[in-house]
Design brief:
By secondary structure, this protein is an all-alpha fold. It has 4 helices and no strands. It starts with a helix and ends in a 7-residue tail after the last helix.
Length: about 130
C-alpha cells in the first residue's frame, strides 16, 4: 500500500466512534468489544477501498502530467532544432527560400463589424 496511513486513520477513527457511542449508550463490555471489533473490520475494508481509489487517481494524474511534460519537452526540442538548423544555414549563407520569403508578422487591428444599420450611427457617440 502506497498510502497506508490513510487506511490506519480511517480504521482508528471508525473504532473510536464505535467505542464512544457504546460508552455513551451504556452498552455492556462484551457488546462494546464486539461492536468495536466489527466496526474496526468494516472500516479497515472501507479504508483499503478508499486507498486503492486514491492511488489510482494519483497514478492517473502523475501519468497525465508526465505525458504533458514529455510533449512539451519534445516541442521545445523540435523548436530548438529548427532554430539551430536555421542558424547554421544563415552562417553558411544557405538560408532556405521559405524562410526568406516569410513576411514580417504585423498585428492588425480589426474594425468592429456593424450588423445592424440602426446601431451604426451610435458607434463613436458618447452617452
Amino acid at each position: 500500500m502506497k498510502d497506508k496511513p490513510l487506511v490506519i486513520v480511517i480504521t482508528l477513527l471508525g473504532g473510536a466512534i464505535a467505542a464512544i457511542s457504546c460508552l455513551i449508550n451504556g452498552a455492556s463490555l462484551t457488546m462494546t468489544l464486539l461492536l468495536v471489533l466489527i466496526s474496526l473490520i468494516a472500516f479497515l475494508i472501507i479504508g483499503i477501498v478508499v486507498n486503492k481509489i486514491y492511488a489510482r487517481i494519483k497514478d492517473e494524474l502523475e501519468s497525465k502530467m508526465a505525458r504533458e511534460r514529455i510533449k512539451r519537452e519534445s516541442e521545445e526540442f523540435e523548436r530548438e532544432k529548427r532554430e539551430n538548423e536555421l542558424a547554421i544555414a544563415r552562417a553558411n549563407g544557405e538560408v532556405p527560400p521559405s524562410e526568406e520569403e516569410k513576411p514580417a508578422e504585423v498585428e492588425e487591428t480589426q474594425e468592429p463589424q456593424i450588423d445592424d444599420p440602426q446601431n451604426a450611427s451610435k458607434i463613436g457617440e458618447d452617452d
